[in-house]
Amino acid sequence: MTGEIELTPTSYIVLGLLSFSGPATPYDLKQMVTATVGHFWSLPHSQLYAEPTRLARAGYVTENQEKSGRRRKLYTLTEPGRDAFNEWLSTLTPELYMLRDLALLKLFFGADIGELAAVQLETHRKRLDEYETLHTLMAGQKGPAGPRLSLELGIRHERETVNFWAEQAHPGKKKPAPRPPRASPRSG
Amino acid sequence: MTGEIELTPTSYIVLGLLSFSGPATPYDLKQMVTATVGHFWSLPHSQLYAEPTRLARAGYVTENQEKSGRRRKLYTLTEPGRDAFNEWLSTLTPELYMLRDLALLKLFFGADIGELAAVQLETHRKRLDEYETLHTLMAGQKGPAGPRLSLELGIRHERETVNFWAEQAHPGKKKPAPRPPRASPRSG
DNA sequence: AACATATCATCCGAAACAGATCATTGTCAA
DNA sequence: TTGACAATGATCTGTTTCGGATGATATGTT
């Protein structure tokens, strides 16, 4: 049965979440996504209804529908599903990330830097706060390192972004000018 | 005529590039995209044939096709097009960027950190180099600040990313552990 | 019961996507 | 000069994805 369809990142998100949580409904998945990977991989919730159906067709999950009421569908990872997920996990990914930043686009095309910076600064600060709160929460508990580490990279990105917009918003503070960034101190 | 269609980020990229360059063919646009915004906003080249057609339908650009040979279509920004673009430019964007990082996804789900890091480190280093080369090139010439600034944010992101993966690849160097990132070291 | 408000599930048209394919032009060797 | 082949440029096509709209159930309140 298995293997008729092409597995996309969305597929692996579903498979991965199912492997963490056990059987779940699309709505459960939606909750999980917004709580976890949604921060760095957004997708419309309708996908979380469509995708498991696709996966079921190909045998990566099984589908059990309630007979009455909301007729929820409960999805369970199958062995082939778990295998496919694990194989994906252990496969190299030389690809780079894809960034889509509306603000950057406007900056590029010459939008007013001050205004742009003010707004961006505020929202990014907010998000940075959220992330850091979340991080301190996670620091307490034990568990796999993955979620914490990915959060840490998110925090670093946000921090750089905040710094950047802050410099644009208040030019000539601290670092006198937004000069050509040179090579990195450590990390060599 | 104007205003029948919804303008998407892709639309604004086309309008914006046309406003920089003057009349251009889809192929010209494709070249411009890969040279500029492509770095932080990728799109399939076929869109650069489809999108101008859409825009022409709604009156934001005009279309002139060669009578023979390749029958190129030359697109020119109209006044409504320029207006729409300028309005977009001067509109606030509280939205955050959208990041889609396959490596981060795998990290989250528990992939082997060492392998992941080694590969990512290499590709990100390469990209960082490209960006820095480009930046020194741009530093020489005059022109609007937007392109240079957006490149600078790109460089910062890449640098953080390189640092992050480097730490994962060689744990216990310099920074003893990948500890909860606290306030930013430099550049703050 | 009647109503308001969450919660949950599905649908749908419009775009985006990725890539294949097709058509023109340039080039160089026979 | 022609014919082969590569490079360039344009278009087409089938699938997914997007992002709401819509509608149905459940829960709580009076």
Write structural notes for this entry.
Two copies of one chain form a homodimer. Chain A has 188 residues and is mostly helical. Chain A has helices at 9-21, 26-35, 47-57, 79-89, 102-108, 113-140, 145-169; strands spanning 61-65, 73-77, 98-100. A two-stranded antiparallel sheet of chain A has the order 1-2. At the A-B interface, α1, α4, β3, α5 and α6 of A face α1, α4, β3, α5 and α6 of B. Chain B binds a DNA duplex (30 and 30 nucleotides) through residues 6, 8, 10, 25-27, 30, 43-44, 46-47, 49-50, 54, 69-73.
Which sequence of strands runs across the widest sheet of chain A? 1-2
Query: How many helices of chain A in DSSP terms?
Result: 7
Mean pLDDT of chain A: 87
Distance between the termini of chain A: 49 Å
How can the largest sheet of chain A be summarized?
2 strands, antiparallel
Tally of strands of chain A? 3
What proportion strand of chain A?
Answer: 5-15%
Largest interface: A-B, 74 and 78 residues
Order of helices and strands of chain A: HHHEEHEHHH
Broad structural category of chain A: mainly alpha
Enumerate the spans of chain A where pLDDT stays under 50 for 5 or more consecutive residues.
Answer: 176-188
Any idea what the radius of gyration of chain A is? Answer: 21 Å
